[in-house]
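User: Just a sanity check before I run the rest of the batch. Below are the structure tokens for the first item. I only need the designed sequence back.
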């Protein structure tokens, strides 16, 4: 780097501090520093150079228990006197004490330092208990000890939040692991929804400014499929090969229909990556082209996190077809669950049904801005539309779409352009539509949401492109709501033995309308 005339980030900071000190100018009266636990000494020297020493020169906030880098410093040694000027914040509005206590128990040999602040230690937390025949949590005292409540207290509520008497604690102060259901009242639910909205907005903003969040953003593969150039340059007697990027599935189907069997097999041999992903190509040729990826693989693209579509059942002779569109964190390395769900639905529906596990789009990864926006869903909707058009071009029956979680956003955006007879959403955060009419589809729309599904706690809003809109199971949306009380969790709608799997099979067969 020295030979190239380049400098590392910390070197730039150190040089900036040196220049500022030589100039003798302090451009700011006050400097506010957050996340102080992760700053390097070079960064501290730069911050020190920005403001002259004095009252309220630097306001510093940090928590050494949240340090992610190994930058342990003494602020005093860097010209920042903090002894006698520091305060420990004892009220936490974001988490309960159980969480840091439990987290700290996982760390061995890691003792948080105080960066030279030497703030007074925390007082021991008070103990609380639930007296017999009382619905309230109460501070332990001689009176409660006498009635047999203590000494088996509930820890985890800091002294600052505790009432200063033996009066019963309000529900908001109960330990977090004791909360169940929605018995907190409408006011608390409104505050909860506002908090979630704020969190979603924060995630979106962080995605544009924080390197760590931005690094997790996903991008669909761009450019032609591998092998496209060779495909287009190949000589076909009297025929121009369809461009995989622009030709529609029906055009592709017409091209293959004009070839002999030997010519078709030759294309599979010479251009497997193109034929294996070409919507409208005959099913058996796509299977052959993708044989290296597994049995009955209808599409396989290893770029990025990878995309794949695999069939359970006899697709070419099926009377009924279902397509499962999965949600986030699905790709080649995490395709097993979707494939198992397809197998379960196919077995439940019967031998005349084929089910396609379609992980054919780039899904959001983890919790971040991608999950709260429609960017990846829009790209996925285009791919899903083309895929279902390919099934139609191959002469197959109109499919039923089963769309899980973020996959229901994809299906909502694709609804007006697919020929699906039924669209079923489960565990849906919304379909980016106010109601069924806004979907612009003639398909029957069904919705299922388990009371045990965490998605029920996500607010159904859409603000500046953030969030996915109305709850498809709400009365005003207009979908037919399926019972899902026995679904065990967010990923359990296609679990064998559940009422939803039975209903999904009946919808696929056309028995439930």
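Assistant: Here's the designed sequence for the first item:
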């Amino acid at each position: 780097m020295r030979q190239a005339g380049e400098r590392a980030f910390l070197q730039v900071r150190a040089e900036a501090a040196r220049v500022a000190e030589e100039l003798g100018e302090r451009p700011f009266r006050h400097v506010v520093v957050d996340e102080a636990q992760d700053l390097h000494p070079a960064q501290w020297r730069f911050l020190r150079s920005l403001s002259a020493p004095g009252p309220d020169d630097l306001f510093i906030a940090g928590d050494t228990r949240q340090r992610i880098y190994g930058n342990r410093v003494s602020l005093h040694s860097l010209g920042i006197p903090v002894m006698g000027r520091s305060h420990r914040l004892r009220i936490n509005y974001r988490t309960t004490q159980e969480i840091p206590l439990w987290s700290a128990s996982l760390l061995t040999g890691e003792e948080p330092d105080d960066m030279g602040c030497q703030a007074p230690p925390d007082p021991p937390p008070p103990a609380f208990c639930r007296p017999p025949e009382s619905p309230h949590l109460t501070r332990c005292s001689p009176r409660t000890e006498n009635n047999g409540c203590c000494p088996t207290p509930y820890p985890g509520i800091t002294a600052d939040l505790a009432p200063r008497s033996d009066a019963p604690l309000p529900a908001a102060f109960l330990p977090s692991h004791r909360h169940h259901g929605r018995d907190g009242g409408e006011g608390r639910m409104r505050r909860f929804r506002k908090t979630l909205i704020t969190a979603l907005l924060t995630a979106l903003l962080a995605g544009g400014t924080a390197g760590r969040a931005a690094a997790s953003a996903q991008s669909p593969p761009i450019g032609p499929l591998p092998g496209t150039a060779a495909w287009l340059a190949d000589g076909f007697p009297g025929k121009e090969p369809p461009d995989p990027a622009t030709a529609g599935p029906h055009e592709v189907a017409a091209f293959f229909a004009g070839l002999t069997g030997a010519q078709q097999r030759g294309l599979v041999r010479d251009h497997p990556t193109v034929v294996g992903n070409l919507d409208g190509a005959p099913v058996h040729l796509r299977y052959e082209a993708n044989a290296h990826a597994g049995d009955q693989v209808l599409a396989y693209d290893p770029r990025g996190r990878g995309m794949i579509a695999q069939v359970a059942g006899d697709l070419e002779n099926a009377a009924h077809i279902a397509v499962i569109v999965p949600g986030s964190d699905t790709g080649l390395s995490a395709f097993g669950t979707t494939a198992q769900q397809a197998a379960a639905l196919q077995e439940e529906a019967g031998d005349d049904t084929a089910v396609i596990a379609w992980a054919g789009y780039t899904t959001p990864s983890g919790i971040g801005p991608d999950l709260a926006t429609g960017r990846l869903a829009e790209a996925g909707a285009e791919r899903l539309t083309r895929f279902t058009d390919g099934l139609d071009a191959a002469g197959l029956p109109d499919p039923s779409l089963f769309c899980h979680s973020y996959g229901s956003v994809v299906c909502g955006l694709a609804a007006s352009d697919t020929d699906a007879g039924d669209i079923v959403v489960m565990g849906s955060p919304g379909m980016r539509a106010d109601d069924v009419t806004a979907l612009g589809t003639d398909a029957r729309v069904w919705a299922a949401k388990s009371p045990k599904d965490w998605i029920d706690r996500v607010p159904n809003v859409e603000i500046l492109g953030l969030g996915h809109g109305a709850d498809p199971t709400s009365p005003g949306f207009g979908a037919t709501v399926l019972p899902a009380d026995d679904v065990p969790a967010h990923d359990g709608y296609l679990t064998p033995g559940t009422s939803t799997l039975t209903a999904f099979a009946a919808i696929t067969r056309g028995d439930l309308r």
